[in-house]
Amino acid sequence: MSEETLQNEGAETREHVASILIEAPIRSVWDEITKTGRIQRALFNTVLESTLQPGARLRYYSPDRKRVFVVGEVVEVEPPTRFVHTYVFTMKPGPPTLVTWDLHETPEGCRVTITHSGWTDAHEDVDKQIAGWREILALLKAEVETGSIPLKTRIQYALMGPMSFMLPRTTKVSWADEQGW
User: Fold this and answer.
1) Alpha helices in 54-104 (DSSP H)
2) Distance (Å, whole) CA 138 – CA 68
3) Per-residue pLDDT reduced to its tens digit, 61-115
4) Handedness of CA 30, 32, 38, 42 (dihedral sign)
5) How far apart are CA 154 and CA 45, in angstroms?
6) Is residue 12 over pLDDT 70?
7) Which architecture, in CATH terms, is 3-166?
8) Is residue 1 pLDDT above 60, yes or no?
9) Quick one: which of 67, 70, 77 has its CA closest to 96?
10) CA torsion 101→125→166→36, rounded to 10°?
11) Sequence ranges of the domains in the chain
């Protein structure tokens, strides 16, 4: 199951580490987390758009591409073991943080470890975002191991589209464009 810790790196920044074992080949897990242009159900039904080259822009869009939920820049890509990018959650934009995906092959499959670092007092709802990583890992495990995600989650995703008009203005693609993201 998932192992997690919240570590202090001094008084000003914090990092969160979550890990899960997925019973699948490392390449299958890598392909799922780095797939672009198609829906990633494990990542809250978003579509990753990026060239996945260091320095490239990165965006996680709604399936209709009218909203963008995460913006950032690719920092490092080492297939199939490491993917690092900056991260700004557009629902509550704050200073960029850093997300590191580390994949390690094990006899049972692939250990996925996410380290989300750079949290400061300027960030809001850190606990909710940390809970989001736990959910993402569980959904990633389900998706890669079984090809599906729980029915409850699929229903939530179906309801999200029609309700998107209620989302903050900061999730609109035009707003992200104005910010230079």
Assistant:
1) none
2) 23
3) 999 999 999 999 999 999 999 999 999 999 989 999 999 999 999 999 999 999 9
4) negative
5) 9
6) no
7) 2-Layer Sandwich (3.30)
8) no
9) 70
10) -10
11) 3-166
